[in-house]
Amino acid sequence: MLGKAEAYRVFFALAASWAALSVPIWHWRAFPLATLEWHISELVLGFVAALIAGYTLSACSAWSGRAPLRGGVVVALALLWLFARAVPMAAHPASEVVARHANAAIFLSVAMLVCREWLFGLRHGRSAVVPPLVIAVCLVLATSAVALRDLHPQLVLVPIWLVVAVGSRMLAAFLKAAAQRSGVPKIRPCWSLVHAALAMLGGAFVFWNNPAQLLPPALLLGTALSLAGFIASLCLKPLRDDALLLMMTLALSCIPVGLFIYACAVLGWLRMGPGTSGALHFIAIGGLACMGIAVMARASALRHPGYLKARRAAVIGFFCVLLAAFLRMSDALTLAATSWSLGWGLVLVAHLQACRQPVPHPVFSASSGKSPVATDLREQL
Q1: Per-domain residue ranges for the chain?
Q2: Which residues, including other chains, have CB under 8 Å from residue 48's CB and lie 6 or more apart?
Q3: Which end of the chain is more exposed for a tag (fewer CB within 10 A), N or C?
Q4: Across-strand partners of 80?
């Protein structure tokens, strides 16, 4: 059983379980060390690490051309992840330092594994865009885990940058495949808007503490408008019949909405509203967490010839988490925490149901052959 451990099965289960547990621990102060710093750390370094590991170590087969990573290396990385989650709960002076280095080791391990598979693919004539992006994000998060004693909320922009970079490519590929199956005329997405959004979002993170306080919100405002323009340039007709595509589109759409609200709040354009804290939570919950569910739902979906059908528990769980984003933005904290935990519990149920079945290949597609879905996914990754 351990030798057959698949990365997406192990780490998606860990991500869903920890998401369902960590927010109630923080909200109801289940143990004394559940501070705000712990809450931010577990979101950015714990939850995000599990999502990145589950996706990249499974999707790496599209970059290398060989079987995805599984077995002992996945089990060892999962044990390291569990160790990093357990250490902060120990009332010991050195527990914080040990946990930070353990979190950094997780991201460095993922970066090295992705780099190995990427280089193997390059040596065999395969090229991909996503691996260097994943490696860069993992290195930034690993450095932040060690160098920053107190993680700042704006660190959530790092995984959001990766969501925009990878999620936009996945969404465009899946929408293109769905449009081809439905006979909808082909529409070419405006990729220059995504490139502009990534550049401005990266600049906002770099210049966050710049004395010119207008620069970061201006960049975030530009990111929001560029990303919204990209989404509008996609062929969205297949959303009416595909819950998986609808989930991914809604998750990506939450990012420009949250960034716009945050920038307006900083610039003083909103006298009433959620404020910067509510906007950041909306970005993290609606954009990051919901995109994670949308990707997990593809892996756990029911497979039919030529298409995927989302499990009902995953769809309901997605909308519970999306509701939590709006509740948190309106400061209904208890309701938001309850809706978040309920949603992730349902996502975990759907994921465990899928784990009873044989592993589909490729994991994030509807077919194992050279169907439009599988081909488009490989091209985009």
Answers
A1: 1-151, 154-381
A2: 141, 159, 288
A3: N
A4: none
